[in-house]
Amino acid sequence: MDRIHIERGQTVFSPGSNAFGPLKFQPDGTFQISIFEDLHFGESAWDSWGPQQDINSVKVINQLLNTESPDLVVLNGDLITGENGFLENATVYIDQIVTPLVQRGLTWASTYGNHDHQFNLSAEAILARERLWPNSRTNQMVFDVDAGVSNYYLPVYSDNCPDEYACVPELLLWFFDSKGGFRFQQKNATGSLIGLPNWVDNTVTKWWQDTNQELVLKYQKIIPSLAFVHIPTYASYAIQAAGVDPYTEPGINDDYPLAPQAQGWCPDGRDDGTW
User: Which of 113, 139, 157, 182 could connect to 230 by a Cys-Cys bridge, CB 3.0–4.6 Å?
Assistant: First the structure.
């Protein structure tokens, strides 16, 4: 598996490198993505309903994957309820989440959410656990201290592309870490947890702008893109107001109005609008 080694001793997997090969469209021109979000594994693990909830979630994943044939599965944040997890083993829930995917030989990519960033659980640890599985395409391409972890992109090529390094991507999939929650194993002078800003960091925005421009120059075209992020942007209000459509945005719309990035955030994590 190809790796790009960068300064500061970090390892980044190149966008196309994976044991499953590059992502490609089907011969009929389709590329199907199945999205699972807010799975919240490990919630209230000490009560009977908590583990049962995880079992039920696995059943739902299995049922969906029995009827769908996704080219990529996206785990779009809050994979684990980190505030209910233990420092020693919180990431083991990843194995339970991805088992249905591994059994079917499916590949996936994740973003991380506020419940994945907690005092006893770090997004870095989740990424490390994911990377134990060759099916995972989750990556980290921005290493600023406030950037979060799941900031990266994946190119998707045509079905007849013989070599990803010789082809122009047909689609770019961007993944952003909206953070939130609390800083891993950090407390302030009074012993309180330290809140982690709940928005895509400016360093990530600049990285995306620079990287996208580099890709435009490299391929001499603007490549269509899709973006995935856990906490919705403020602009998503306009999308939500249009309601649920069975084709363009199917499903429930119960979190109304939605809670966008940065809403009510405080450094002490109270999320009550005070500083």
Answer: 113
